[in-house]
Records
---
Amino acid sequence: MWHSLLSIGSIMDDAAINSLLEALKNPDEAIREEATHELWQIWFNQKGVHGLNLLEQSQMLLQAGKVNEAEALLTELVTNLPDFAEAWNRRAVLYYMQGRHRHSLADCQQVVALNPIHFGALHGMGLCYAALGEYALAIQAFRRALEVQPYALANQRMILECTAHLS
């Protein structure tokens, strides 16, 4: 099922990813947190030290209030490394923080196309749809995120909020 995921980087191997995915479903919170951390590490390190350094540089620019420079760096990164899912995800976060929900949504969709189990991007899609008032689509995105991370309370809460908007 997740075999197509291997195209996103040689560091990912079926057994390790499947083990982490199973750990996300474990009732033990510590096990889930460790698996979540491990997956983020894999995603951030997909393009090695160079890719990680550029992601960290974009984060430092954001923290320094240099939003335009951070956006330019992330745009250059996704242009030069279009299969780097986490670069798309970081830019999606930046766009969301700016209230540019359609741009953020498009980048989240690109992340999920590259990495179908990226629970962060699935959650981000839900947030974008909710911000756009597209509650049924938001619920679908949050449900997809819950398929990967069934104990994620944020997704459960957002489904309830979006459902309330529909009634």
---
Amino acid sequence: MIRHLDLGPTPFARLRALVIRKQNRTIGLSGHRPGKLYGRLGCRAGKRMKPENRVFFRDEHEALAAGYRPCAVCMPEAYKAWKVASSTHKSP
């Protein structure tokens, strides 16, 4: 997980360099720290996040391991699967 503020004084240039690497893709998803959710980099809901609340993940496995859930806006199928899986793990 990489925090947005850790990218330095020119975060968008550094972010672009990390995302564009095709062979060794460092960043594939973004997340919202307080809400513990992750989604695609171009998600309309994610674009409204404050930089201090934004984090980045390599892939879904890293985001799920950190305790984040899929975004219902840009990843509806993954969100539905997560919701079903999380509801079956709760005890009555």
